[in-house]
Structures are given as C-alpha cells and as structure tokens.
Known about the structure:
7-stranded mixed β-sheet
Amino acid sequence: MLYLDWRFFPVFDQIDPTAAFGGAYNAGLVVLSVIVATLAAFVALSISGRIVAANSRVAQWAWASAGAIAMGGGIWSMHFIGMLAFSLPCGVTYAPVGTVLSMIPGILASGVALHAISQRTDPGFKRLAVGGVLMGAAIGLMHYSGMAAMEPEALLRYDPGLVVVSIVVAVGLAFISLGIRFRFHGSVSSRVAATALAAPFMGFAVAGMHYTAMQAAIFFPVPDAPLANMATSPMFLAALITIFIVLIMAIALVATFAGRQVELAQSLAAEVAERKRTEQELIKARQQAEAANRAKSQFLATMSHEIRTPMNGVVGTANLLATTPLNDRQTQLVHNLVGSGQALLGIINDILDLSKIEAGHFELAEVDFDPRELIAEITDLFSERCTSKGIEFIYFVAEDVPHHLTGDPSRLRQVLINLVGNAIKFTERGEILVEVSLADTTEKHVTLCCSVKDTGIGIDPEQRARIFESFHQVDASMTRSRGGTGLGLSIVKELVTLMGGDIDVESEVGRGSRFWFTTRLVRSADGLASASRRRAIERPLRVLAVDANAVSAEVMSRYFASWRIDALLCATPAEAEAALAEASASARPFDVLIIDIKGLACGGVKLARKVRIEQQGDRPEVILLMGLDGSVADTSLENLGAFALLAKPARPSVLFDCLASIASGSRENGIASFYVRKSPGRSAIAFDARVLVVEDNAVNQDVASGILKQMGCSVVTAANGRSAVQLFAQENFDLILMDCEMPIMDGFDATRRIRDIERVMRGLRDEEYSRPRTPIVALTAHALAEVRERCLEAGMDDFLVKPYDELQIADLLGRWLTPSAAIAVPSGNRPSQQEQPASTAPAMRLDMKAVERIRRIAGDDGASLLGQVVSQFAATSAPLLLSCFTML
Length: 888
C-alpha cells in the first residue's frame, strides 16, 4: 500500500493497516491550541494595518517582521500544544534542534503572506488568493517540519490523500479569513472589529490544518522498540509554550497600539500643520484679494476721471451747440453727437456700477418717494421713443400700492430703465406693458412686484439660463443689430438682490418676454397715514373709451373699475358711434368720451369732431389721448373743443383729475381744460452771480463758462488750484466750481487753503470782514462714494459728476444762489415740455386740496380763517367796485 514517510517520500510498506496505534486527544489542550492560534492571527492581522500605515520602508519591514514572528510563533505554539494534546501507546520525544528549526518556515511564510496583503489599497481577489496560498503553505510547512522533529517509538507514515486535504483546508480557511479582514471591513464599525471577526477563521485554519494533518499521520508499532517517555509533563510544556508565545504576542499588541497612537499623533500634528498652512494661505489670499480690490478701486477711479473728463467736453459742447441756430442737417448731426455721447456714458456707468457691486462698495440710499411718480417719469422718458418706433407703451400701478415708500428710487429707476430699454430694443411691433402690484405687506414693509412685458423676439430656454450673467448677450453674432454690452441684466440682478428681491424671466420665442422682479421697501410715515384713503369719483359717470390697443384698453378698464366708473370700451370709431347712438336712444348718454388719437389717427379726429358738432344737449365731454410726436404740437386739435388733450399713456392721476373735474362741472365753472403741447421755448432762471471755474481742461472750461453765461452769471476761470487760491484772496466770488485733479495744486488742497483764508479773515478784529462762507462745488469725473467723502472732508459743500448739462448746473445754482429773474431761453431742439395753452381760461386750475388745507386754518375766534377773509371781501368789495365805476 502507498504511504508517505516523514520526508514525504513515497513508500510501499506491507503493513497491516489494522495494526496502527490509535491515538487520543486531551480536550483542554485542543481548546488551548485553537485559542493560541486565534490570538496569533489577531495579532498578525492587526500588525498588517501598521505595515500599511508605515511611512518608511524600514518601518514596513520592521512591522512585517513582528507580524511574521507573531504569526509564525503562534502557528508553532499551536502545533506543539496540539501535539502535546495527542497521546500514543508508545514512547514519544522531540528533537530539540528540529523543534526550534520548525518555527523558521512558519515565520518566513507568514512574513511573505503579510507583505503580499499589506498594501496601501485593499487587496483584490488575486492578492487575497496569493496571501491565502502563502498563509496556508506557511501553516502546512510549519506543521510537517514540526512532525519531522517528533521521535515516536513507532513507524510514522502519512496518508497522501489526507495530506492534500490538510493543505487545502489551510489555504481555504486562510483565504476566507483574509477576505473577511480586507473585503468586508466596510460593513463593520471599524478595522479592529473586522480583525476580531477574521481572527477566529485564521485560528480555525491553523487548527483545522493541524488536526487534519494529524489524521493523515499513521503510527505503526516497531518490534522490540524501547519505551521512552518524555521527562517533562506534556501539560507543563504546553503551559510554558503558551505563556512564552502569549508574552510575545502581548508585546506585539502593545507595540501595535503604541504605533497606532504615534500615527494618530503624527496624523493630528500633520492635520494641524496643514490647517495652519491653509489658514496662512487663506490670510495671504484675503490680503491679495484686498490688495486687488484696492487696485481695482484705484483703477476705476482713474478710469472714471480719464473717461468722464473728455466726455464732459464732448457732451457739454454738443449741448451748447444745440442751443445755437442750426440748419436741419446740423441739427441732426448734433442730435447724433449727443445721443452717442449719452450712450457711451451709459456704458461707462454700467461698468462702474458692476465693478462697485463686485468690490462691495455699493450702497443703497434711503429716500421717501412715490412709486407712481417714478413710473410716470419712466413713461415720459420712453414714450416718445416708443411712438417713433411704432409701439405702444402702457403702464399700470395697482390702487393698493402705497403712495409713499422709503427706499432707493434711483436704483429702482435704473432697474426699470434697463428692463424697459431692453424691451424696446427687442420689440418691433405691439406694445410694452409695465405693471406694479403689491406682492406682500407687513406693518413696516412692503414688497412690490414689478414686471415689464413685451411682444418682441422672445428668448429661447438655453439663453434664459444664462441671461443674467455678465457680458452675456442674447444676440452675440457679428451681424447683431441691437448692440449692447451684456452688462445691463447682470447689474439689474445684482441691484434687485441688494434691494432684497428676486428676478426672473418668462419668455417664448416669437411671442415676447416678461421680466419680473420684487423689491422690499419700507413704509413711510406719510404712506401709513394715507394707506386707508382710496380714490373715487362721487358723482357717477358713464365713460366710453375708444382705444385701438387691446392691452391699453384693458389697463384703462382696470383703472375705471377701481374708481367705480361705469365704462364701455370700443376698439374702432364705428363701434363707438354705435354705442353713442344706442346710449342716446336708451336715454342713458355717456358723460365722457375718451378717444385714442395716437392709434386711431384720422378716424379718431373725425369721431371727436362729429361728437362735438352733431350731438347737442347730452353731448359728452371729449378727452383726446395723443402720442408724443408731431400731433402734440398740432394746434388744430385744440379747435375740436376737447376738454383735455393728454399724452398717451395718460398718467392715472391726471386722468382721474380730468374725470373728477368733469363730474364737478368744471367747464361751466370756468376751470381751465387739460392740455399737453410742445412749447416753442422755455423759461430759465437767471443768476446775477460771480462764479469762479477752476478747471485745467480748456474744453471743459469753455463748457462750464458757456452754460453759466447763458444763465446770466459772470465767470472767471483758473487753470489750477494755486491760481484759484490767489484769485480768491484778491476777489470776491459767489460760488466756486472746483475740479479735483489738476496740476500744480489739486482741488482738495486748494479748497483747504481757501477755507484757511476764510478762517484767518474772520479772525481779524481790526477789519470789517462780512464776506460769508463761499460755497465750493466739486467738479469731478469720479463717481465713487469715497471720492465724495474726500471732497466733503476737504471742505467742499456739494458734488457734481462729469459730464453735466445745463439742467444739472441750474439745479446746483438753485441750491446755493438766489435767482435774480426768469429769462427766455430758446428751446431749439429740446425735448417737449408740458404747458397750458394760451386761452381765455385762467393759466392754472384751482387746487382744491390747497383750498381745503386753507379752510382748516382757524382764526382767533376758532372759526375758519378762510371764511372770515371771504366775508370781509364780500363786505368791502361792493363799495370798492362802485367807487371804481364812479371814477370811470
């Protein structure tokens, strides 16, 4: 029969298998052997984590050696404890040298296995298989080496099949143990728990291989063999080996724990150092960002000055040129020059605004304003442009919107102007509707929802996602016809965010767009007092409105509904004539007929003329709505006898006043009608003042001097601050316009010197010095807030940003000087002004609100002072008139 001898050589012995010795096991030592193997596996697998975490190759080899010794020693101790647990009915001894040398294969194989599985990344199947094979081989090699050191009084043979099974058991259980340790540690709480779960499998792999191999060993009796027993008790040897190995493993575990703590301390120190480095980098980055912001602000200030200074000369010279007699071609060229200059200035302002917002230097004002007046101003600004393009401009402000709010009206106006300007740019026909409604209200705050809706080209979804980004344009092609910088909507979004609101857009390609935004404002004290008052006309009126635009008609109907007016709307003159005939037949005539002359043109004029001529008795009052074009200057419309000629869209307050006047019978009482017409000229205020203009730019000197001389001022110029100080010490001036940046001496130093001179002159007791403080106004191209503060700190009184025009100069002079008289100034090519026509009616309507306020003034006896005055006038007027007639 085929067997293997102790050297694993095959032999064919003619031995009876039934003659083999039957061995027995000590259960306590068997359990102890499994425990020792499990502890050894736990220590070895724990050390594998230190091998991975080691920072140097020497440390890796040191930990690998410690793990190999722990694992190899554990396998060796388990083997000999298991051998001591096995007893034969014959003598058994162990060769000391062979016993010690049997530990070496286990240690070497364990070290190789640990090195194979201890990498930075978790091992895959291939590495786990290699590790399992090496670990199983280490266990098998150690076992059979130890068996070779055994000296029984018997013939040792191995069953080849069971030998193979023992090796397979060792490899399989080792593979399972390593898989649990490295592949499933993510499903448990920590690596320690994973190691504790994997260690028993490794211990069972060692014990399973050992006892399977012991089953493969067959001991046959040897005739006449002497009976030699061990001098030391197997139990004592097992205990000694266990204590020795446990001490080694305890030392390894302590070293592992200490190494882990050292690694944690090093990791913590590295993290602290990294955080400190990151903090230093953040501080450095913040300092660089602050330096960049300062450089950016300085660049903006410099560019603002360098661009605005020549722009002031260009725009100012063009405005002065427009006041001179020009032919049609020259007028058109001057208009082009002014328009191009204003467009360029708008781009500059957009860039500066965006830069100030990004730099965090943008601040909102807190000013009381009326949102209805703000929308009306925007209407006045864009109505003529819309009319010339052939589109309708319409706006609606809900009645529940407060009349008085606190916020930044200039920035709210800027947002609306941007949105309306874009709507006009991208709309070729149809209308533009601006709506303002109340989105939310509290005791102290109001949230307004403003929208701008157009019938333009629309925006596709891909463009809508990026439309509020800086420098993004809907039409970015080289052939684009609408221009723009792509900054407007970006600034709008930033401003709306600063005002505590949101902005979005709804659009459909080819159907138009609707931009809407919200803004949070504070209720003003006046707004809280007047919130409960609602406008309504006391006497019922029947109104027939003829409007060619459906959206405009719908907005008018909403106003009529809020004013409790019975109104009928028609789209054509034919419908209106039918409605008038039906009303006359039913004895329910209309009190007012509102006709859209802008949309209906000749048809509307014919309807108005027909109503005024043909209808008698129950003839309605006529209100004509006109566009801001040539028809406004057409005096023939006044001959129609209309009660009012209003620009379309009519201000709701003006339209309400018209209807209220009609309801009160104002025409019969001699109250003037409402007219809007272009004026051939305008009156300006004259100032008999001596002004010092300090400006180093010759063109800007001419611009300022020309505007001031037109207003009646006497002008003296200086090219730098030093000359200005010398002139101030020698002469008297009523006002000084001071440029900030000049050669030799800038405006700030010059202002300080002038204020010093004033203080010295006031301190002279022996001289009469009655000259008051001279106002100094900064003429600067800087638009930044810090420049304004610097001007005020230097002693300046006011601030005027270049480029400026005559209206800004007039407003400035009005704040610091007393006007001497009104002078006639030709309007030339100026925009239209609202005026009353020359007529036999009084030039102004009686302000009933003012009369009511006067009526509430009490006299000495508590009665109305107005009543007393009227009574006195009635008592004395008759004798005075009689005396006048007698004298005539």
